């Protein structure tokens, strides 16, 4: 009989020990990690929150550089945080993120230049079209040029589409018209040449939204403006991962000459009554919707492991088209899904548990590379 023992060392490396119980012979194999296991396939990323950027939690600080070679700021580069007033920018945390990534040889994906959500109050209040265009231009120029040569890529535009593939009725559409997407890419390219430029959305693996996304990309390309990739966010649900739609979308976006990224991956374990990741959508609180507050059955963790394994099998099949797979958070306790769409729940969407221990899903993803 043999069993694997996995432990996180002080340096954050996961050491696999193959212990043979019958013979008491113990073989310690090589230290392994997600980024190393997938180093010939695609980057493995995570979203970072403020304490993680500032390396305030020793366990997170030890684990992140061992497991991941790409990071996306979860919030600090969003307009509300980085550009709080017309003539005021707050770069401290984003500068720290860039320095942190350089220190650990990690690639940064900037997130995000143009998004209707988490916009600063002053921008929402601008009535005059010319002033709004000036805000739009100044924001992209200032933020993208500050991190020129320091971030590997930008989510230039985030979530500009409705579920049926039409353009979302945002302040950008209202004030600038549907050319705002092309204009954002044009400005980003000018401010930060050499940085990869992506369009990012959730549910854009779904057929109708995918069609809208393809149309949007073609419009940018037809204008002679550079767009390098499409991010499929990947906020999916246990037992309901849309594998066929994901594969068709990887092929469709690649056929446009684009790189494909999975940019915000998590597999949610709790019930809710709608799909997607529109942060403005909420659901009423109800104890029945928080069934695993004191722990989750192993059977569900095994099902999650199977879902993650099938996803990574698909990603490996298309590794010539996929350049990065980023998880939206480091461990379960830090996931946004504990607070949305219902606050105060206990969710389990990632590969590491609340104590930073690898979950069955981690082992399943690693087992594909053995
Ligand atoms: O920083 C403030 C704090 O000062 C305040 O006291 C507290 C009170 O609510 O709020 C804090 O801000 C919160 C912020 O996260 C930082 O924790 C916001 O309320 C909260 O709305 C915000 O949520 C973020 C969400 O985007 C909102 O836009 C999540 O952390 C973040 O994971 C999520 O990320 C998005 C991607 O950017 C785009 N795709 C969907 C994805 C999930 O919604």
Automatic annotation (TrEMBL):
GO terms under biological process: xylan catabolic process
Keyword Hydrolase among UniProt keywords: yes
Keyword Cell inner membrane annotated: no
Entry EC no(s): 3.2.1.8
A molecular function GO annotation: endo-1,4-beta-xylanase activity
Catalytic activity of the protein: Endohydrolysis of (1->4)-beta-D-xylosidic linkages in xylans
Alphabetical UniProt keywords: Carbohydrate metabolism, Glycosidase, Hydrolase, Polysaccharide degradation, Signal, Xylan degradation
Enzyme class: hydrolase
InterPro entries according to UniProt: GH (IPR017853), GH10 (IPR044846), GH10_AS (IPR031158), GH10_dom (IPR001000)
Active site positions, chain numbering: 264 (nucleophile)
Signal peptide: 1-21
Top-level lineage group: Bacteria
Positions of the GH10 domain: 28-368
Family to which the UniProt record says this protein belongs: Belongs to the glycosyl hydrolase 10 (cellulase F) family.
Protein name as catalogued: Beta-xylanase
Classification of source organism: Bacteria, Pseudomonadati, Bacteroidota, Chitinophagia, Chitinophagales
